Amino acid sequence: MFARILGLDVGTKTVGVAVSDLLGITAQPIETIKVDTENGALGFERLGELIQEYQPSKIILGLPKHMNGDEGIRAEASRDYGTRVAENFGVAVDYQDERLTTAQAEKVLIAGGVHRKDRKKSIDKLAAVLILQNYLDSHKF
Fold first, then answer.
1. Strand 58-63, strand 5-10: pairing
2. What is the pLDDT of residues 15-73, one digit of tens each?
3. Pairing verdict, β 14-20 and 5-10
């Protein structure tokens, strides 16, 4: 593969960001970008800096589906965000089912002994790692 992939966990207040290694085997957390999607603040300035730094071949966005697999308002918002990312940065965007990734991230942080106030700082970027890792694991050659 020899190209990085960015993973994004898009919420209304934050976007968790993760990156793959060059071989597309593992995902690591980068940061959490503050956003205010209701007021049009999408974090694109910082995201653009990260895209410039990591030069990803693709961006994977978490797609929040209902437990029955249906897509709702949040999935529609994620697809809209993905479309805007592709248009603004010229990078291909794909989607990965993100059901339960935030719950998984919280369990990992609790198991690691991370205090509640500190979990809030890390949960979105860890969810991005899980989204990206699930994508990488399901797209092995």
1. parallel
2. 999 999 999 999 999 999 999 988 889 999 999 999 999 999 999 999 987 677 777 78
3. antiparallel
Please report where in the chains the tokens 């990312």 appear, as a residue. Answer: 85
Structural domain including 26 reads: 5-138
What is the chain's length?
141
CATH code, domain carrying 93 = 3.30.420.140
Radius of gyration from C-alpha coordinates of the chain: 14
| pTM of structure | 0.87
Count of the separate structural domains present in the chain: 1
Q: Are 41 and 62 within 8 A, CB to CB?
A: no
CA distance 110 to 106: 6
pLDDT tens digits along 98-118: 876 777 777 776 777 777 777
* Burial class of residue 27 (count of CB atoms within 10 Å of its CB; 0-12, 13-18, 19+): buried
